[in-house]
Design goal:
Layout: H1 5-21, H2 24-39, H3 44-71, E1 79-87, E2 93-95, E3 98-105, E4 111-117, H4 121-128, E5 134-144, H5 156-162, E6 167-179, H6 187-203, H7 208-217, H8 226-229, H9 231-235, H10 247-262, H11 267-284, H12 289-306, H13 313-327, H14 335-349, H15 355-374, E7 377-378, H16 381-388, H17 391-406, H18 411-433, E8 437-438, H19 445-458, H20 466-485, E9 490-494, E10 503-506, E11 513-516, H21 543-549, E12 554-555, E13 557-559, H22 565-568, H23 571-577, E14 579-580, E15 583-586, E16 606-609, E17 618-621, E18 635-640, E19 643-647, H24 653-662, E20 670-672, H25 684-690, E21 694-697, H26 710-718, E22 723-725, H27 726-729, E23 732-737, E24 740-745, E25 749-752
Parallel strand pairs: 4-6, 11-13, 12-14, 13-15, 15-16, 19-20, 20-21, 21-22
Antiparallel strand pairs: 1-3, 1-5, 2-3, 3-4, 5-6, 7-8, 9-10, 9-23, 10-11, 17-18, 18-19, 23-24, 24-25
Membrane topology: Multi-pass membrane protein
Keywords: Cell membrane, Membrane, Transmembrane, Transmembrane helix
Protein name: DNA internalization-related competence protein ComEC/Rec2
Length: about 750
């Protein structure tokens, strides 16, 4: 693993990227350390080149950031705009009647994300059959891209900002769509985007699992059922095979080279042809981070060879990495890019190791990224990689190519390939269900950095000294696992689930995990012409994601306040992803079949609740069994960290009066307002009696119901009760230790209680 000057020159640029895009102090310290390392080489050209690169990249990133900041609009204030958009045909993704794409506003030159809804079957068919660039004359609401509103949630605003996009447009009307004229300088790109659109349409007609594999490996698109079909692959940490790492690109290019050699085409001709064809293949394969890296690696090496200046693999990687940072300054903060560039670098630097040490090294190099990104690791991952990676070039990729190519003429062959791929997925899903999945949780970012540095240090040691260092490295994983799973603090967290409710109560040392409601969305009947899509649950990105980031794989008590979909709609996802020990519902709801109809498998025990029970929260409502409408909603109370919390579900003012009549001394420090701040709840006399120090409102942004209501906010102001809403603050959590704690909101910071 000897140092290479070209490789060392790009590392300070990477540190500068870290400082600019996420961790200013840590990135700056790392930059100074790396500059000191380059200085110790005492090679003047290397030092000068490093400083020039830092100056160029720093100036470019500063200018780019200023441009994006000037262009960005507030995410919580939409503005009506009219625009003419230029849209590539392969950019439009359709899911049911919804569609979204990235388009360019021709008036301003700005690229933005666009969302819309097809209004008719002909419009939907038009969207599904686009094969040429189009101009859209539209009007809609434009605002900034919404950042992550829950802790440890995927940050869409940062993701798109790295790609030069800071605003989004929600279409209200599409006045006209016309085929866009193609200027000569756009012809190449437009032509290949058109062919990619045709390839996507073709792959979408393929049967079963073949559709998922073909879309992922050929045009680099995602089928609606991808995450369901590849669930086993995801849990076993094998998704790097699937376009993330760009492995399939290298294999396909190697296959083309093999064909050219055996057809006796002169090497000079096919090498120039491949070099010139790589930009086209980059577009055709989806232009992802892994595809860019693989295409550039091959292109740089071919160009060096044709120009009689051979470029080493490590120098090629360094050059490609610089280009990747130029295209995407946040490359180092994205899981796909980390795996693609990190694992490819590992393959280069560990090529002299034995197979066991190389496989172990790649696992250790990828582990910090996986734990930071998906929060879990399967102990069978090493075995799965050892068994599956060799199968990929000789079985999975050929089955995909053969099945895709044969579909128009021999559909029976495609059906057979689809069946074989599905059996492979079933086998992986079975393997993933075996004991060994480790719900690790999300480590602190600097710990992940230390693990990565420790892994590289491990492989600088002679093989005979590595075992003790390896044991130390693994012990550090054990210590961090213990710290995540046995936290000294507890918390009460109000998730931002849009127009819905979901509240976590986690006791210190994770002694008991309780959840009040799951969140969900009200469903509306779709016209018959709208194709069905696999069910999706927002909880996978919000509350379930947060629980997994804290290493939590179970819920002891899941309270369902009543049967409305915005409170329990995501229950199927919880029952599928986590071990739920029991469901607690308002008395009467246990006898209603409607809410249980969409749940699969065996339900946990269902416990009906009414006043007088403490499970362990004190039940304040209901007083008798009845249908689980708003007026029969659960109201629950508990004391955590020295504060008394009251959770009102969707209970109305009549229910509040019942509570006051039953307990004239009822009080609470923190009140979660009933019915999302609607005027049907939070009566003035109820607020006056409780005298809460804080009022929490859980409501969706720009919701159709106008929650929270102006009357309710006026009631709170009159009682001098400060209100905090998930609409403006995102997730709200109270973290406590003993009888003291502090409040945090995702969008507005923290303060002491």
């Amino acid at each position: 693993m000897a140092a290479n000057h070209g490789f060392l020159m790009v590392l300070p640029v990477a540190a500068l990227s870290v400082a600019v895009n996420g961790h200013p102090w840590a990135g700056s310290v790392l930059l100074l350390l790396l500059l000191a390392r380059v200085w110790t080489l005492r090679v003047r050209p290397t030092w000068v080149t490093t400083l020039v690169l830092l100056g160029l990249f720093g100036a470019f990133w500063l200018w780019r950031d200023q441009q994006l900041t000037q262009r960005q609009r507030p995410f919580d204030a939409a503005q009506e705009v009219s625009a003419t958009l230029r849209v590539q045909p392969d950019a439009v993704v359709v899911r049911g009647a919804l569609y979204y794409f990235v388009g360019q506003n021709l008036q301003t030159g700005e690229r933005l994300t666009v969302r819309g809804v097809a209004k008719s079957a002909p419009e939907l068919r038009t969207l599904q059959r686009l094969t040429r660039p189009t101009l859209w004359r539209v009007s809609g609401q434009q605002q900034g891209v919404l950042p992550a509103t829950n802790f440890n949630q995927f940050d869409g605003a940062a993701y798109w900002r790295h790609r030069g996009i800071v605003n989004t447009l929600k279409l209200t009307t599409v006045q006209q769509r016309t085929v866009a004229a193609t200027a000569w300088w756009q012809w190449f790109s437009d032509w290949w985007h058109g062919w990619r659109a045709r390839l996507i349409h073709y792959c979408e007609r393929l049967p079963g699992a073949l559709r998922v594999y073909a879309l992922g490996l050929l045009p680099g698109a995602k089928a609606a059922e991808t995450m369901t079909e590849l669930q086993g692959m995801q849990r076993l940490g094998l998704l790097h095979l699937f376009a993330i790492s760009g492995m399939h690109v290298a294999l396909l290019l190697a296959a083309v080279e093999w064909i050219c050699v055996h057809l006796r085409i002169q090497r000079e001709h096919w090498e120039w042809g491949m070099l010139l064809g790589l930009p086209a293949y980059f577009i055709l394969a989806g232009s992802g981070s892994g595809v860019l890296r693989a295409c550039l690696m091959r292109g740089v090496q071919l160009a060096g060879k044709r120009c009689r200046r051979p470029i080493g693999t490590l120098d090629a990687w360094a050059g490609v990495f610089l280009i990747g940072l130029f295209v995407n300054p946040g490359l180092l903060f994205e899981l796909g890019s980390q795996l693609s560039y990190g694992l490819s670098l590992g393959l280069i630097l560990l090529q002299g190791e034995s197979r066991a040490w190389r496989q172990g090294g790649l696992t250790l190099l990828g582990l910090p990224s996986l734990l930071t990104g998906v929060f879990q690791w399967h102990s069978l991952t090493l075995l799965a990689n050892w068994a599956v990676v060799p199968l990929f070039p000789v079985t999975l990729l050929p089955l995909t190519l053969v099945g895709t190519a044969c579909y128009p003429w021999l559909p029976v062959v495609s059906q057979a390939c689809a069946w074989l791929l599905q059996q492979f997925d079933v086998g992986l899903a079975w393997l993933a269900q075996l004991p060994g999945n480790v719900p690790f949780g999300k480590p602190v970012w600097w710990v992940a950095w230390l693990w990565l540095a420790g892994t590289w240090w491990l492989f600088t040691r002679p093989p005979q000294q590595r075992r003790r260092w390896l044991l130390g490295l693994l012990a550090s994983y054990g210590l961090v696992y213990g710290a995540i799973h046995l936290p000294l603090t507890g918390e009460v967290a109000y998730f931002d689930v849009g127009q819905g409710d979901s509240i976590l109560i986690r006791e210190p040392l994770n002694r008991r995990i309780s959840l009040i409601d799951t969140g969900g969305h009200l469903g509306f009947r779709q016209p018959d012409w709208v194709p069905t899509t696999p069910p999706s649950f927002a909880a996978m990105r919000t509350n379930i994601n947060y629980l997994k980031s804290r290493g939590i794989d179970h819920v002891d008590d899941l309270y369902l306040s009543h049967h409305d979909a915005d409170h329990i709609g995501d229950l199927p996802a919880f029952l599928s992803e986590l071990h739920v020990k029991r469901l607690l519902v308002p008395a009467g709801m246990e006898a209603e079949p409607a809410w249980q109809r969409h749940l699969r498998g065996e339900l946990p025990p269902v416990v009906p609740l009414q006043v007088g029970q403490a499970m362990p929260l004190v039940v304040r409502h209901p007083y008798h069994a009845a249908p689980a409408e708003n007026e029969n909603s659960l109201a629950l109370q508990g004391t955590f960290g020295g504060l008394s919390f009251l959770f009102m579900g969707d209970l109305d003012q009549a229910g509040e009066r019942k509570m006051l009549a039953a307990d004239a001394h009822l009080q609470a420090d923190v009140l979660k307002l009933g019915h999302h701040g609607s005027k049907t709840a939070s009566a003035p006399d109820f607020i006056a009696q409780l005298r809460p120090r804080w009022a929490i409102i859980s409501a969706g942004r720009q919701n159709r119901y106008g929650h929270p209501n102006a009357e309710t906010l006026a009631t709170l102001r009159a009682a001098r009760v400060p209100a905090v809403s998930t609409q403006t603050s995102g997730m709200i959590r109270y973290t406590y230790r003993g009888a003291h704690g502090y409040w945090q909101t995702k969008l507005k910071g923290a303060h002491e209680s």
